[in-house]
Amino acid sequence: MSKTNVVIVGASHGGHQSILELLKRYDDVDIKLFEAGDFVSFMSCGMELYLENSVTDVNDVRNFAPSDFKDDENVAILNNHQVTKINADKKTVTVINTKDNNQSEYPYDKLILSSGVTPKSIPVPGSDLENVYLMRGYDWATKIKNKLEDSSVKNITIVGAGYIGIEAAEASVKAGKNVTLMDVIDRPLGTYLDHEMTDILTKHLEEKGVKVITSANIKEYVGSGKVTAVKTEKEEIPSDVVIQAAGVKPNTDWLKGTVDLDDRGWIKTNEYLQTNLSDVYAIGDATLAYSIPADNHVPIALATVARREARYVVKHLFEKQPALPFGGVIGSSALSVFDYHFTESGLNSFTAKRSNVEVAKSFYTGSLRPAYVPAGKDNPEVCVQLFFNPSSHVLLGGAVLSTYDITAQGNVLALAIQHKLTVEDLADADFFFQPGFDKQWSILNIAAQHALGEKDF
Q1: Which tens digits make up the pLDDT trace of 137-193?
Q2: Which of 126, 144, 203, 323 could form a disulfide with 221 if both were Cys (CB 3.0 to 4.6 A apart)?
Q3: What is the CA 378 to chain-centroid distance, rounded?
Q4: Positive or negative, the Cα torsion across 229, 230, 233, 234?
Q5: Is 45 a residue of the active site?
Q6: Is 13 one of the catalytic residues?
Q7: Is 267 helix (H, G, I), strand (E, B) or coil?
Q8: Which helix (H) or strand (E) holds 76?
Q9: pLDDT-based confidence at residue 321 (cuts at 50, 70, 90)
Q10: Is the Cβ–Cβ distance between 350 and 387 less than 8 Å?
Q11: Mean pLDDT of 290-311
């Protein structure tokens, strides 16, 4: 009996999860995964750990290796194979072997696009100078690592103060470098957290020796052959290395004119994650994901999103129209910034405005444990921010921040948002109490009670 040909484009989280789900659910499939790069499949979210010598080996910082599926005769992993075209009329894909430039066509019955994103390079003079790097992927990771270990490198400038930029800054400081962190917006992490929390983190970055420059208008990377400085409207910052962490763009140029894209290049899908082409699905970072709190399709470049979408697509792969649409995601993430840890879920003021969602917000600060535990390491200050519908009080977002690792509370917030609980529900939620961990009311209970105008416990 002939097998169903399933082709997957991209070997990151979405591609990996698709293979796992296909093998789990079906016996009669022939799976071919194409990856344009050589290394399968580097986890850029693990780059900081690698740069700080906190991993077993750089070659272990990956979702999977092709050898993981060597015993599965139904699976072929083809790295250095770039898919350049979908031939929908013939149900084939055109693929170039990047080692020898040979071109081939492969048939598909089902095609799953998980083509991901590529990092942005700032379009200024000097961006092609030596030692101007991007903070993504195996090759860039090893280059940056070499520079962190190079004693002749004194000054590192990071362009972009989102998650990746913060990770680059911390790794560079720990490597003993002079670090400048700059962003075009008015504060680090400004698209993830409101100012109440970014004010705390900005001060902490500066205390750790990071020079923070905001509202930066970069004019040029200066140098002859190698970069020597970053020039802004106001100054030149000496720079032996520049690490660009200024966002990403969808890897979809090859799909133009074939698959429906929005005006920024993100893949459009329907509620079943199907594209405009029959039997062609799209998942992961290059798509517009359905956000439950925003009730809108927005870019959410997270591994958690890609894996949940892959699980849904494969489960319903052979249904012309699934009984249920994809349920959507919240969008949750976490990060350490030197001594602080934070997690955020759902919407904040920035993302709510971008999706035209009206939100009310509340910010609470208090100790983690009862007052009879001395303030300090074992009873630190905790900050909680909640975002909610001003009329219905349905939770739409939230964040927690502390020097104590309370990031698991972010999962509580994500679950509450996913199930559309109200602030009142969170205020009364039945959480445990043990003074070695928290107060008589959990920190999220108190934050919700605070949002309702009740006197702080």
Answers
A1: 999 999 999 999 999 999 999 999 999 999 999 999 999 999 999 999 999 999 999
A2: 126
A3: 31
A4: negative
A5: yes
A6: yes
A7: strand
A8: strand 75-79
A9: confident
A10: no
A11: 95
